[in-house]
Amino acid sequence: MTDSIQSRLDARNIVLPEAAAPAANYLPYVISGSLLFVSGQLPLKNGALTATGLLGRDLDVATAEKAAELCAINILAQAKAALGGDLDRIVRVVKLGGFVASEPSFTDQHLVINGASNLIAEILGDAGKHARAAVGTASLPLNAAVEVDAIIEIR
Questions:
Q1: CA of 94: how far to CAs of 106, 127, 155, in Å?
Q2: Domains contained in the chain, number
Q3: Is residue 120 part of a domain?
Q4: Tens digits of residue pLDDT in 55-102
Q5: Which domain of life is it from (predicted)?
Q6: CA 155 to CA 33: how far, in whole Å?
Q7: pLDDT tens digits, residue range 33-53?
Q8: Confidence class for position 154, pLDDT limits 50, 70, 90
């Protein structure tokens, strides 16, 4: 499966970055039994946030959806680090948790988090089909517009 995951990443011109270090007192991932818990990933690229502010005020859905996709790329980078570089150990993405910083009247969080869901399903195939939450929140760390975490079953 690693070759097919890598070929899907290559087809999208996606190079997984080095896994980001935590920004506070937590671990970027934890393995417990056959589950890999990946801490919330922000839309960071080359160490900088790509989307900040609130949906419904500062950003549109399309921009935030791309930010959620970047969060998913960063989830895969953390998974690769956790699994010693072997993404073939992924059995299934069990659940994604999506958080969208948004104005109280904004109700399209589910569309924003589709950016992460679509990328994970595209890159991992059936193993990427997952349960999910898409939650609106008043703010996120560092003024990020989106944050996504994951629970992944591994071998």
A1: 27, 9, 13
A2: 1
A3: yes
A4: 999 999 999 999 999 999 999 999 999 999 999 899 999 999 999 999
A5: Bacteria
A6: 9
A7: 999 999 999 999 999 999 999
A8: very high
Residue type, 107: T
In a domain, 7, yes or no: yes
Joined together, the tokens standing for residue 95 give: 């659940």
Q: SS3 for the chain, per residue?
A: CHHHHHHHHHHCCCCCCCCCCCCCCCCCEEEECCEEEEEEECCEECCEECCECCECCCECHHHHHHHHHHHHHHHHHHHHHHCCCCHHHEEEEEEEEEEEEECCCCCCHHHHHHHHHHHHHHHHHHHHCCEEEEEEECCCHHHECEEEEEEEEEC
Question: Which pair of tokens denotes residue 80?
Answer: 């690769």
Q: Rounded to an integer, what distance in angstroms lies between the CA atom of residue 49 and that of residue 144?
A: 7
- pLDDT category of residue 23 using cuts at 50, 70 and 90: confident
By CB atoms closer than 10 A (0-12, 13-18, 19+), residue 118 is middle
CATH number at residue 60: 3.30.1330.40
Tell whether 21 is covered by a domain.
Answer: no
| 20 is a domain residue | no
